[in-house]
Amino acid sequence: MSGPDVILRAEHVSVEYAGRRPTRAVRDVSLELRRGEVLGIAGESGCGKTTLAYALARLLRPPAQMTGGTVTFTSADGQSVDLSALSGEQLRRFRWAKVSVVFQSAMNSLNPVTTIGRQFGDIFAAHRPDMDHAARERRARELLTLVNIDPERTVCYPHELSGGMRQRVVIAMALALGPELVIMDEPTTALDVLVQREILDEIERLREQLGFSVIFITHDLSLLLELSDRLVIMYAGQIVESAPGELVGKEAAHPYTQALLGSFPDMRGDRRNLHGIAGSPPDLRADQVGCPFAPRCEQVFEPCRSVAPRLLPVPGRADWLAACHKTGGPA
Amino acid sequence: MSDARGTEEFPAGSEPVLRVRDLVVDFRQRGGERFRAVNGVSFCLEKGETLALVGESGSGKSTVVRAVGQLVRARAGTVLLDGVPAGRHGRSLRAYRRRVQLIFQDPFASLNPMHTVRYHLARPLRMLDRSSGSGLDERIYDLLRSVNLTPAEEVARKYPHELSGGQRQRVAIARALASNPDVLLADEPVSMLDVSIRLEILNLLDRLKRERNLALLYVTHDLATARHFSGQIMVMYRGEIVESGASDEVILRPSHPYTRRLAAAAPDPTASRSDLAAARRARQEARYG
Amino acid sequence: MSAFRSWRLRAGVAITGFFVLLAVIGPFFASNPNGFSRAEWQPPSAAHWLGTTQLGQDVLAQLVAGTRTTLEIGAGAGLLATVISIVIGIGGGYLGGLADELLSLLSNVVLVIPALPLIIVIASFVHATGVWPTVAVIAFVSWAASARVLRAQTLSVRNREYVLSARASGERGWRIVFFEILPNELPIIISQFIFSVIFAILTQAGLAFLGLASPEQLTWGNMLYFAQNDEALSSGAWWWFVPPGLCIALFGMGLALINFSLDEILNPRLKIYRPVKSRKLAPEPAEAVS
């Protein structure tokens, strides 16, 4: 575990979708990712986690736009770069070489009419124009071997591969230029349980081998409990809890996290009275007064509805943050 | 391979409401080849009980639902409703459909975007007994209230795109209940919903099952909810039932290797990180040598 | 309606609306299109805004009168073709099996036969005079492309879960086709209808230009025929043949604009976003914790 060697720092990031009533999808989010770590971002649909990921990777397109905050990337050689200030050629060189992205259902977005080998070739043509054909072919085969796919399959089309293999191809593409950070948005959601386990094992192995950092975004909290070093829970565009991944399963501080953990019936545990969370997330077009989770919270009390809780360390733990009046407070 | 329940004899008076025997479903693929999606599946459903059908995609579990719901023609096998072979045409088919209803997986596709909630519920009610007018409205509102969609008058006026995923699924359940069925076939009813909504919907189905003494077939790929919401489980792989029995038994003490792999692959929030790493390394060894 | 934010829709509706208005009330205001006069071959002037023909007829009057017949034929043929394509396309798509194979075969055969030669042959046999025979003939050759599109769409829609639910509820086949499937294909049907109207007008103009339409009918196409026949081109009487040609082109463009804007309106993913003026908002004011 390295010291405070931060590879990515987001400060006060806000993202808005333009419209008659703008939707404030991400509200004042700050987080940091340390080198070699897995940061898990969990939340349900509409919480803003995918929008946040796109903002971090500079992938937002109109009508979405970042309305505030900075994203700073520090590469291994110590150079820091303000991502939101990059443009044009600099941004292009940055993309994929330093930070790459595995999108949701990416395995279904592979070009169906070109071979896998050609698609790897496209990456190199765009980012490493000096590589000749032989070198590209060699590197493509290397990458397939890296993810445990027979390198002879560079001539295959996507439909000739199974879902799990396609997802591994996509991961290999994300690693093609040796990035320092890979952002994965629901990489295993569309996969079966067994294949999902395979892919997760694969990601862990690659991480150990190549040492890149990962931001792993999913709604499946139980996955993140297993593999993230640090876990961030998002609700209504804000971070409500930020905690060490290994411990949050047992000692969640925020009522939403607790309720979310309670929504997963434990396969091996005792049967107990299970219930989800009644109600639905707030409308992100409206301004929020007080805590966004207050209408659905079972531990709600007076200040919750009028005063918005800040994300503050839980008493006694500097590395555990929660945005809740019950737990947050000056450490 | 343990035999699925359904081949034993029942003492008189407790005949299962739905009995499926040796169901076989083939699909014709391009090039004329036949693909056997369901290969000799047998099971029975009892009133007031939930039977879970667990499997991955491609196992044929959705095809079983569609075949029993008569949306897809079975190549062989019998379906008995109260001991009587299911009607296949005309009036007897309609009578069967009234008693055996389906709930689909995708809440965004199971409601017609061009029609209001009211229309979706009015149609099955009308087909049941040609009711109309204010009596119809009252029954529509009753259905909506029974699935906790209130205020019913407001919800009835809405179009599907104005509802959330969970609300749409509740409408789908209400529609299935409109004809007062005895059997509900739920094909992955919550897998496309948010985690915190899933339990609400599953609890709703459980409550309705108890209140109305329904026989519920719960098809899912999620072992955890299958265990918690059903008394009996069947595990399906490539068109066949590979294991079946009481839920706790099958999941906590699986005997078939496939079931073991499924159970082992599920996330375990209680294991320590070192245990998980060790398990992972063992799997990689086994996989790649 | 927020749909009108699309400039294409505004322009398209304006153009087609103008011509429809012209067709409906224009003839009340224009002079007699058939009236001979002594002022032959006159270029545009105060008396005759678009000049006169070889027989001294007022070109503008002809244009206005012709608009009504042209639009009637266009809309009529477009409607008939669309109705046929719905029956064959959606019917075949839903029925499947042998019926679908046969209907599909029929569509493909009619589609492959070149339209204009077929129309010419039929027109010369049938002596397509009058509005209705023309409408029928044009519709007969133009339904097939639309039927194919609708069939493809139906094949996809019929497996959607709401259609399956309707079947599982016991709905009858015809009700499923009309109340579950058809409403979801309306956007495509409208789009195909507009295409059919454009095609019908162009085909009618083509037929007329080739002299296959009845000379008593007054349409834009017929005006072109007479203009060409009386050698307006070579004598430089542009005011005779340019206006009807321009009308055909403009009306076609107006319909096409509506068609394109339909896509933009109905499919939110194709929306073209104008960039919002970016402004950095101040971060949320910090709330005091009690």
Count the E strands of chain A: 12
| Strand numbers in spatial order across the main sheet of chain A | 6-7-8-3-9-10-12-11
**Secondary structure tally, helices of chain B:** 11
Shape of chain A: globular
Structural class of chain A: alpha/beta
Main β-sheet of chain A: number of strands, strand sense, barrel status? 8 strands, mixed
First-last Cα distance of chain B: 29 Å
User: Class of chain B, according to the CATH hierarchy?
Assistant: Alpha Beta
What is the total tally of β strands of chain B?
10
Structural descriptors:
heterotrimer, B: 289 residues, alpha/beta, Rossmann fold, six-stranded mixed β-sheet, four-stranded antiparallel β-sheet, 10 strands, 42% helix, disordered N terminus, C: 290 residues, mainly alpha, MetI-like fold, 9 helices, elongated, disordered C terminus
3D structure, described in words:
Chain A has 331 residues and is an alpha/beta fold. Chain A contains 9 helices and 12 strands. Chain A has helices at 49-56, 88-94, 116-127, 133-146, 163-174, 193-210, 221-227, 245-251, 255-262; strands spanning 6-17, 23-34, 38-42, 64-74, 80-82, 99-102, 181-185, 213-218, 230-235, 238-244, 312-313, 321-322. Chain A has an 8-stranded mixed sheet, sandwiched between helices. In chain A, a hairpin with a 5-residue loop joins strand 4 (64-74) and strand 5. The longest helix of chain A has 18 residues, at 193-210. The mean pLDDT of chain A is 87. Chain B has 289 residues and is α/β, with parallel strands linked by helices. Chain B is built from 11 helices and 10 strands. In chain B, the strands form 2 sheets. Chain B has a 6-stranded mixed sheet, with helices on both faces. A 4-stranded antiparallel sheet of chain B has the order 2-1-4-5. In chain B, 47% of the residues are buried. By secondary structure, chain C is an all-alpha fold. Chain C has one domain: Orthogonal Bundle (MetI-like fold). In chain C, 69% of the residues lie in helices and 0% in strands. Chain C contains 9 helices and no strands. Chain C has helices spanning 7-29, 59-95, 97-112, 115-126, 131-157, 161-169, 173-209, 220-229, 238-266. In chain C, helix 1 crosses helix 9, helix 7 (173-209) packs parallel to helix 8 and helix 7 packs antiparallel against helix 9 (238-266). The radius of gyration of chain C is 25 Å and the shape is elongated. At the A-B interface, helix 6, helix 7 and helix 9 of A face helix 7, helix 8, helix 10 and helix 11 of B.
